[in-house]
Amino acid sequence: MKAHHWVLAAVVIVAALLLLFATRGVGAADAVRGQALYEMRCGGCHGESVHGRTRRVATDFASIHAFVERWRSTLSLDWSAQEVDDVTLYLNATYYHFPCPATVCTVVSEASRNLR
Q: What's the rounded Cα separation, in Å, for the pair 69 and 91?
């Protein structure tokens, strides 16, 4: 095999691995990434004073999502829909504890389902 074939093969393998890892977990929100995004863009102004109120404005998961989306738009944050879901999941898991819709949260992994 010629040298350029080896290079081409290596590029294809690397691209396939990158694609595999980039799409891993697509569709399921990631609270760790949500925390990082929140702390980087929102944490300086928000925290317990907003999320720890006795009388909360958010009444369910959808209302948290609506607030995150509103502030994403207001602040012109370049967040994808997945990142909005990530931040929403983080806020819900940390402060609110509302039921999370299956379209956002993955409760049982595919491997666990296969064990039943």
A: 13
Residue 75 makes CB contacts below 8 A (sequence gap 6+) with 41
pLDDT band at 34 (very low <50, low <70, confident <90, very high): very high
Separation between Cα atoms, residue 32 and residue 6, nearest integer Å: 38
How many angstroms separate the CA atoms of 98 and 6, rounded? 52
Query: Do the Cβ atoms of 88 and 61 come closer than 8 Å?
Result: yes
User: Rounded to whole angstroms, how far apart are CA atoms 2 and 8?
Assistant: 10
pTM: 0.64
Q: Give dist(CA 103, CA 12) in Å, integer.
A: 32
